[in-house]
Write a structure and sequence with these properties.
148 residues; alpha+beta; Arc Repressor Mutant, subunit A; Alpha-Beta Plaits; 2 domains; 6 helices; 41% helix; elongated
Length: 148
């Protein structure tokens, strides 16, 4: 978000964003009550936030274990420098890869991987991700508990 948009947000916009971040299905009537303004005013503010690109999408948060994925791994992937984009695009094609990020930290790519169990994760790391052309290192870190 550019500083112009950030500076135009007031406290009401920030509260709307916070409420929708916690639950994207929060009724506008509930937001209006909290802010002490009309539902129409909330609707206009949300539309303006969407048009400014502040609110990009609404999404559902899914519990992987309810779908049979009992392990979630934040997996660091290092590649040959010239293969980074090819590898990232290949990762996006896999159903078990839920998110892909290019990073400047310890690894070139970070991927959120959902696996059914340890054997499944091992297969994914060794036989799927590890065999992508250009991958030189795969470092999974299993999430034990989500705190926030």
């Amino acid at each position: 978000m550019d500083s112009g948009v950030r500076n135009m947000l007031d406290e009401r916009d920030r509260i709307i964003i916070e409420m929708l971040t916690r639950d994207a299905r929060t009724p506008f009537t509930e937001i209006a009550k909290v802010l002490g303004i009309s539902e129409t005013a909330v609707r206009k503010r949300v539309k303006a936030l969407e048009e400014a690109g502040v609110i990009k999408q609404y999404t559902a948060v899914v519990d992987p274990s309810r779908l049979g994925y009992n392990l979630v791994s934040l997996t660091g992937i290092d590649t040959l420098p010239e293969k980074i984009f090819e590898v990232a695009n290949k990762l996006k094609e896999f159903e078990f890869v839920r998110k892909v990020y290019l990073t400047s930290g310890d690894h070139m790519i970070m991927a959120e991987v959902w696996a059914r169990d340890g054997e499944d994760l091992s297969d994914i790391i060794s036989n799927r991700i590890g065999k992508i052309e250009g991958v030189v290192k795969v470092c999974p870190a299993i999430i034990l508990e989500k705190l926030k």
